[in-house]
Automatic annotation (TrEMBL), chain A:
Belongs to the phosphatase 2A regulatory subunit A family. InterPro entries: 2AA_helical, ARM-like, ARM-type_fold, HEAT, HEAT_type_2, PP2A/SF3B1-like_HEAT, PP2A_Regulatory_Subunit_A. Residues 276-357 form the Phosphatase PP2A regulatory subunit A/Splicing factor 3B subunit 1-like HEAT repeat domain. This is Protein phosphatase 2, regulatory subunit A, beta a. GO terms for cellular component: cytosol; nucleus; protein phosphatase type 2A complex. HEAT repeats lie at residues 12-50, 166-204, 205-243, 244-282, 283-320, 326-364, 365-403, 404-442, 482-520, 521-559, 560-589. GO terms for molecular function: protein phosphatase regulator activity. Residues 89-270 form the Phosphatase 2A Regulatory Subunit A helical domain. Keywords: Repeat.
Amino acid sequence: MAGADGDDSLYPIAVLIDELRNEDVQLRLNSIKKLSTIALALGVERTRTELLPFLTDTIYDEDEVLLALAEQLGNFTMLVGGPEYVHCLLPPLESLATVEETVVRDKAVESLRKISHEHSPVDLEVHFEPLVKRLASGDWFTSRTSACGLFSVCYPRVSSTVKAEIRQHFRNLCSDDTPMVRRAAASKLGEFAKVLELEYVKSDIISLFTALASDEQDSVRLLAVEACVSIATLLPQEDLETLVMPTLRQAAEDKSWRVRYMVADKFSELQKAVGPEITKNDLVPAFQNLLKDCEAEVRAAAANKVKEFCENLPEDSRETIIMTHILPCVKELVSDTNQHVKSALASVIMGLSTILGKDNTIEHLLPLFLAQLKDECPEVRLNIISNLDCVNEVIGIRQLSQSLLPAIVELAEDAKWRVRLAIIEYMPLLAGQLGVEFFDEKLNSLCMAWLVDHVYAIREAATCNLTKLVEKFGAEWAQNTIVPKVLGMANDPNYLHRMTTLFCINALSEACGQEITTKHMLPVVLKMSNDQVANVRFNVAKSLQKIGPVLDSNCLQAEVKPVLEKLAADQDIDVKYFAQEAVSVLALA
Amino acid sequence: MSSGISATEKVDGFTRKSVRKAQKQRKAQGSAQFRPQAGNLSPGELSALPQLRDAPSTEQQELFLQKLHQCCMLFDFLDTVTDLKSKEIKRATLNELVEYVSTNRGVLVDSAYPEIINMISTNLFRTLPPSENPDFDPEEDEPSLEASWPHMQLVYEFLLRFLENPDFQPSTAKRYIDQKFVLQLLELFDSEDPRERDFLKTILHRIYGKFLGLRAFIRKQINNFFLRFIYETDHFNGVAELLEILGSIINGFALPLKAEHKQFLMKVLIPMHTAKGLALFHAQLAYCVVQFLEKDPTLTEPVIRGLLKFWPKTCSQKEVMFLGEIEEVLDVIEPTQFKKIQEPLFKQISKCVASPHFQVAERSLYFWNNEYILSLIEENIDKILPIMFGSLYRISKEHWNQTIVALVYNVLKTLMEMNSKLFDELTASYKADRQREKKKEQEREELWKKLEELRLSKIHRNQNNTHSLQNSSSNNNNNNNNGNREPEDHSSLTFSSTDSINPETSMLNTQCAK
C-alpha cells in the first residue's frame, strides 16, 4: 500500500490518516508521537493545509493522545515552514488549551509559550494575542485557566494599547468567580509582574496581590505568597513597607496552616527579596512565630529553613539575632513532640556551627547535637550523622565521638534494614573524619558484622562500603584488616556467607591490586569452585570473569582456565552458562 | 500543590511505616480547632448557669443567649488534664441547648438567630488540620478522629435541630446562613472524621431544601470542589457524601434539564470516574449518573462515550466498577439509544471479556445473565455478534480460568441460538480474518519503516545543506516536487474528518465529527 506509486517522498494521505485514527489507542499514540515524520513526508505546505486542519478537528480523543499531540506541536515550527507560518499551529493548540485534563492543557500552554517566541511582533498581535483574549474570555474555566499562563509571553512585545487590554484581562481573571481560575492567576502573578513596567506593578499588581492574598479560599491565598517573592524583588526598597509588608505580615499569621506553611517554605526567598532591614524588624519575629507554630507541619517547614535564614541575616547583627532570638526556639524544637519537626531540624542544625564559630558551637550547639544524637527517632540521629562534616570543620569531630559511637552502634543494629542501610552509606564519610585508628578500634567490627546481615541489601551495601574504605585507607590496610576476615567466610557453613566472600572479592580486587588478588584472593575463589551449592559455583565463574582483568595472563591460563573449563562441564545449567560466559569474555577459549 | 507536600514527603520514605505506627497510637489528636494564639477567646473558667427549664419564662430568652455565648468558648482537647470542669459545663450546656431547640416552641425569636449562627460558626468553622498520615488511604487506614468531638457533635446536633425546628424561618435565617456560611460548611466535608461528614451531609441537605436562594450557589460550589478534586488535588474526603446529596438533588431536577445540569454531568461527573479513589464513592457516583439518564435518555450516548473514553487501562478493580455502572445504565437504556452506542460499547465489552483478569472477564460475561440486555443483544445480533465473536472464540480455547471458559461457552451458545447462520459464517472466516489482521499489521510496520527511512534521508539532506540552504527551503523544494508530480492527490484525498476512507475507521469518524 505505502509508496505504491514508487515515490518515497509522497505517501497517500489516507494511509497516514488511518494511522492517526487507528482504533487501537496505543497505535494512535505511537503515530502521534511520530507526527513529525508524517509532516516531513507530507512537506510543509500539505502539513499546513491538510494535516493541521485534520488535527484541529480530531481534538476529541484520549487524553494521552492529546498530550502527545500538544507536545509535538510545540516543536513543529520548521515543519510548517518556519517562523513566518508558525501561527498555523495556533488553532489546534488553542483547542488543546481548553480541554478538561490538566496535563494536556498545561502541555498545550507550554507549547504555546514556546512558539510565541517564534512569532514576529506583527504576528503576535494579529494571531497570538487574539487567541489569548479568546481563551481569557472563554465560557468554561479551563480556557481561562490556560490564558493565565500566556499573558506574560506576549506582553513585552505588543503595542501599548494591546498591553492595556492584556492587563485588563489579567485583572478580570484575578477576580474570576471560579477558584480554579483565581488559583491559576495567582500562580502566574509573579511571572506577569516581572514583565510589567514598574508603574503598572505598583498600580495594578499590588492591588491584585492584596486581593488574592485575602481571598476566601486558602488555596488561593497561599499562591499569593509565592508571588510575593517576585513582587518584592521588583519594587524599590522604600516601597516595600507600604506595598508588600502588610500583606506578608498577614500571611505569616493566616488562620490557615497551609498559608503559614507556604510562608515558612518560601522564607529564604522572602528574606532575600525584602532585604536586611525588613528582615531584622519583621521577619525575625515572624520566623520565631513559625518555629513555634501550633501546627507541626509549619514548624517542620520553618525548621528546615533555620540554617539558610541565619546564613542570610545581615552580618552586623547576625550573631546577636541568632543567639537571642533564634537559638531559644531551636532549643525547644530539639525536644519537639513531632518527629518530623525534629528530623527537619536535625538535617540543618549542624550548619549553624559554621555561622556561630567554635566557642558558641561548643557552648550552645554541642548540647543540642548530643541530644539529637540520642533521639528516639532513628531519622533524627541519621540526619545528624549525615551532616557531621559541617561540625568537623569548626570544632573537629572528636568532641562528638564519645556520643557518636553509641549512636552509630545503635543505628547499625536497628531492627529496620533501611536504617541500617542508611548508616552504612555514611561509613566511608565517618571513617574519613574519624581517622583509621578510631575506625579500626570502634567501627571495623560493625562493618564486618554487616557482611553477614540477614538482609541481602545490607550485605550488598556492606560489600560496597568495604571498597570505599579500601580506597580511603589503602591496599595495605585492606590486606591487614579486612581481607583475612573476608576470606575466612569462605569456609562458613552458610552458603550465603560464602557467596558474600565472592561478592567482596569482586568489589575489592581492583582496589587491592594485582598482588593481593593473585596471592590471597584467587586461591580462595578457585577452591570454592568445588562447593556443593550450585549458586556458589556459578558465582565463582562470575567472580573469575570479574577479577580476570586484574590478573596476569600466565595466571589466567595456568590457574583460571582449567577451573572454568571444569565448571563449563558442570551438571548445573546455570553454572555451565556463567562458566562459558567467563571463558569467552576472558578470551580463554 | 506545594502546601500538600508535608515534611515527611521530603525525607526518605523509609520512616513511613514507623511513622504510621506512631500515628496510630496518637490517633484522635488531630484538631486545628484550638489555636490559642489566633483564638478569639482565651480559655478561662466557665461557671454553670441556671437550667433553662428552671428559669421564669420572661428570663428564658436572655438565659438562652447567655448560654449560647458561653458555648463560644473553645477548649483544647489534646490536653486531657486542664479545664475539665469547664469542658463538662460546656458539654452539659450544649446538651441543654439541643433539647431546648428541639422540644420547645417559640424559642427562635429573630434576635436569637445571629447568636445561634455565631456560636455554630465559632465552634465548627476551622481550617482542617493536615492529615496525620500523609499517605492516608481511606480504604486501608483508620481515619484520624476529631479530638473535640464531644463538643462538636453536640454543636452539629444543635444546628440540625435548629434547622428542623418548626418555627425556623428561612427568611430570617438567610441573613446569617449565607453564601459564606455554606462555603465554610462545604470545606468541612474534607474532614477525615466520618461522623462529622455524616452530620454535614444531613445539614447541607436541609439547607438546600430550605434555602431556595442558595441552591444554585451550593451546586456551583460543589462543582468547584469536585473539579479541584479531579484535576488538582485528587484528595477530598467528602466526595461520597456530596454525591449522595446530589443524587437526591438530581432526582428533583425539572425537565427539560438545564444546560448547566448537563454540563455538570459531562464535565464533572464523568471525568470523576478517573479518580484514584473511585472505589470510595463509585456507588453514589453511578447512582447520580443513572438518575440523569432516567431524567433524560438522550444523554445516554454521551455518557457511555464518556465512560469509554475514561475506561481504566491498568486497574482491574476499577474496570469491574465501570462494568457494573455500564450494566446499571443498560438496565434503563432505551432501545433507540442502545443502537447508537452498541458498536463502541461492545468493542469495549469484547476486550473485557478477553481480559486475563478473571474478575473483569467474569463481570462482563454476567451481562448475558441480564434478561433485558439479552433482549437488546438479540435485537441487534447482526451488529454485535461480529464484534464479540473473535474474543469469545479465542478465549473459549485459551483462557486460563475454567469458570471463564465455561461462561464463554454458554455465551457463545446463546449467541449462536440468536443467529446460527451468521455464527457459522463467522466461525468459517475466523482464520482468514486473523490472517488479514496479521497482514495489515505487517503493512503498518512496513509503512513506518519507510517513513523512518525517509525522515533519516531528509535529515541527512538537510545536514548537507545547512551551510547553503535553510531547512525550510529544502522542505519547500520537496513539496513542490510532490505537488508537480501528483497534483490529483491534493484534491482527491484530504484530511477531512468526515469522509470515511476505510470502513473500519467509521466509528472514529463519528467520534472525530463530534
